[in-house]
Amino acid sequence: MAYISELYCSLCDLENPTALRAPITPICPMSGAICDGGGNRHQTAIKVANHPEIGGVFVPGHARIVPSVCSITYDISNQLASRWIVCPRRLFAGSPGRDANREFQSHEVEILVAAGLPRNVRLGVWAEVYLRENGSSDGDENILNYHFDYVIAPVADMTVGDVAQRYGLSIDDLSQGLGLRGRGQRQAARSHVIVNVPILDNFIIVEVMTASTSGSDTERGTNISSAFINAIMGRPCPSPGINRRQVWGRMATQLFAKSCLAEAWGGKTIWVLQDALMREIFQATGVVPENMKSTPGKPKINIASMRYANQAIADENRIVLDRVYSWDAGVNPTGSGEVTDILLPARFPDKAALVKCMMRRKVSGTILL
Questions:
Q1: I want to staple 175 with a disulfide (CB 3.0 to 4.6 A). Which of 49, 186, 204, 210 is the partner?
Q2: What is the pLDDT of residue 100?
Q3: CA angle, 342 as apex, 341 and 348 as ends, to 5°?
């Protein structure tokens, strides 16, 4: 039987369930924003009006609450050492809406340093960057359709003209992104200064993968919403279990394409996973860490394995970087004529395509390592 192990990054006492102390502000301690369940749990949102018993638990003004389940365990007696993280924000929240170094979590800084990002340089963080390019004349089919969790790069303030020259973009392209309309505004745009322009000489893409949940049963009260309500009310909280194979299968379809795309642009992709999920991958595949190659100059798969700081002390609930893996990808970005080419993108757009996608979105925050 699976149980909720953490709510709002705090450990649940599963042997002696206790209600959370009201009133609760549904803020994620990792991101500092209203908890969104990791961005993929909106369909499980609870309408407070439909559940009077939790009406007084949360501070007024929150009509819908997304279950803030961080991790799940199968072993109550060994809870600290058996937690499966199910919320990507628990591993990397990307500091949405923030602009101060102190507000980044220490383990997030560990990842950025290990990735080789430059120190004492202002870095911008872009969340939810979408790269789409049509593959047919009618525009109905996307030949490229990728979503990047985060893109992190040095930033500088530059004029529109300088950005256009650096990346080979047209003034019209950039003017449209800035909302400048009319010929006169576009002509004047060349001297307009853009704050936090990404400098893609040394950058990373961060992809966060966690275990997913499965096997929910609404009638038995083990769906994630019911389990969340039981947990905050201090009742036993059986929950959906962990779907290990699904998350690995989902990751494998993106692993090579996103890694090779970043390298083609002069950067790298870092995959952030919990150590428990890494062990599952080692057991379920032919990957033996000690036997994996890392040859200079060859495309790489880079993985940051994260763990709880101490699995024996309940109060030590921090996440820390366990180790970084950098292995040969085993694919040829230019094509090999072998079936592994199916793992690659249909084509590699130039760096300007990524810049345009990033500049369509507001920078989420900045950091100085």
A1: 186
A2: 46
A3: 70
